Amino acid sequence: MKTTQTKAEVLSVKRLGGEIFLLSLRAPSIARRAKPGQFVNILCGEGRDYILRRPFSVYRKTDDSIEILFQVLGKGTSFLKDSQPRSTLDLIGPLGHPFDLTRDAEVLLAAGGMGVAPLRLLAEQLRKKKKKVHFVLGARSSSYLPFRKDLKEISTSLFYATEDGSLGSRGMVTDFLPDLLERIKPGQVYSCGPELMLKRVAELTQRLGVPCQVSLERRMACGLGVCLSCVAPVRSAVSGWEYKRVCREGPVFDAGEVFWDEA
Amino acid sequence: MKPSLSVDIAGIKMKNPVMVASGTFGYGREYSEVLDLNSIGAIVVKSLTLKERRGHPAPRVCETPSGLLNAIGLQNKGIDYFLENDWPFLKKFKVPVIASVAGESLEEYEKVTEELQEAKGLSGIELNVSCPNIKRGGVQFGSDRTLLRQVVSRARKRTRLPLLVKLSPNVTDIGEMAETAVDSGADALSLINSVNGMSVDVRTRTPKLANITGGLTGPAIRPIAVYMVWQAAQRVNVPIIGMGGITSAKDAIEFFLAGASAVAIGTANFINPRAAIDVANGLAEFLEEHKYKSIKELVGGLAV
Hints:
In chain A, a hairpin with a 3-residue loop joins strand 5 and strand 6. A 7-stranded antiparallel β-sheet of chain A has the order 4-3-7-1-2-6-5. Chain A has a 7-stranded mixed β-sheet with strand order 11-10-9-8-12-13-16, sandwiched between helices. By secondary structure, chain A is α/β, with parallel strands linked by helices. The longest helix of chain A has 14 residues. Chain A is built from 6 helices and 16 strands. The longest helix of chain B has 15 residues. In chain B, the strands form 4 sheets. An 8-stranded parallel beta barrel of chain B has the order 3-4-7-8-9-10-15-16, surrounded by 6 helices. In chain B, strands 5-6-14-11 form a 4-stranded antiparallel β-sheet, with no helix packed on it. In chain B, strands 1-2 form a two-stranded antiparallel sheet. By secondary structure, chain B is an alpha/beta fold.
C-alpha cells in the first residue's frame, strides 16, 4: 500500500528557537516510502470530540524515522510541542504528489519562512545525486530561521533575506531572486512559502523560462483526497481552470500550471 | 451463536448497519488504498450533478468546537464521468453502493436519476435535497414542503431502485418533512445533513469560509440529529438511516434507540479512515455483551 495509517513512537521534541520545533518519530513504514514534498497527517490529541489531523511535510528522515519541523500556532501544534518521548501519535502517510527530482546539475531552492519544511529533504536527496543546490531562505527576522545551521551541510550556497535585515540581505526573497537567477542560472527552481511569494516566484521563473515547481499549502480535513476541502485552481485545457486537490494532485505543482489569479 | 449485524434497508441488503455518508468517502478509490471497502455496510458516494461543478473557492473548511464547517460547493465531475470512470471501479467490490443525486432544478434531479439506471448493480439512489451550500436548489428543496414533494415524486417516476431521501435539518418541523418525503415515494430516509453555520476570523474581520456560510457536521450536531431521528421515526414507517457526529458504537446506539435502522459515518472518516469499521465492530461487541440476537432488537428501543 502506498499510504498507511500507523502509530508512530515519539522519539524527541526539540525547541529550535522561538516557537519553532523539531519532532522526531519512529515510523519505518512511512520513512521508507516518503519522498521529498510528501507529507504526513497527524492526529493531535485524543481524537475524541476531536480536532482534525494536521498536515506536516517530511523535513528529514532516516531508515526508520521521520522528522517534522513545525511552528506552534494553535491547538494542534500546541499539543505536538508537549508530546512526550515514548508516547505514540497516529499518522497517515506518506501523502501527496512529491517533487520531481530534476536531472539538471544546478538548482535553486527558495523558501519563505516555514516553507523550508518540504525543501530540506529535497536538498539532501539532490546533493546525494551530486547536484549543486543553492538555498535561498527568507523570513521576517533571523529568529525565524533557527534551523539554518542544519542546512549548511546540504547546500552548495546559502543566501539569507530578512525583512528586518537581522541576517543576510534586507528584504524579501523575491527582491533578490531576479539577480540570483541571473547569476546562478539554475536548471530548475523549487519553492515553498506564502502564496504571494510563490506567485511572484512563478512570474519570475516563467519570464526567464526556468522550470519551477511549487509546494502549496491549504487547510485540510481528510488529507487523502475525499473531502475536496484543500483545493487550488489549476489551468485546464477544457474549461480554462479547475480545482485540484493539494493533498493528492499536489502539494507540488508546476508553477506554470497554477492559476494564480484565482488562488 | 454470534449476534447478527445484517440489515435490509428498503431492499438494500447490508452486512452491517454502518454506512459511510455522501461527501466523506469520494467514490471509494482513495479509501480503498487504506482499508477493505468490502467491510463497510454501504457506501453513499459524493453527490452527482448533471454537469461538472467546479465548487466553491477555498477556504472550504473550518474547524469548530467538536465540529467542522464545510462549503465544498458540490464539486464533482458530473454523472457521465461517474458512469464511465468511477462506477466501473466501484462495482467490482462486494459492498452496496448508493448514488447521491443533487441538482439545481427539478429537471436536473430527474435527468441524473434517470441516467443512473445505466449503472447496473447500483443498490440505491439517495436524493440530496438538503445541501446548504448551493445558492439555488439544495437548501430550498429540503426546506419547502411543496418543492420536496415535487422533487421526490418526480425522481420516484425515474427509478425502480430503492429511493432514499436525505433530509435537511434546517427546517421548522422535521417530522412534517419526513412525512412529505415518504408520501411522495421515498423508500427510506437519511437524516440529518449538515446544519447551517458560519465562523468569523476576528483578527481579519472576515468569514473563515470563502462562501461565508457553510454546513456544520461532527459531534457538535449529534444531539440535533438524535432529536430529529426520534421525531421522524414517530411519523413514518420506512427505515431511517441516522447520522450526525457519530464517532463510536455508543454514539451509533443512541440513533438506533431513537428509531434508526442503520447509521452513517461522515466527518469521523476524516479523523479515522477506519471509523465505520470500528463502529461496526463496536456494535458487534455490544450485541454480544448484552446477549442480543440482532441489531434489530435495538431499533426504536428508547424507553420513554
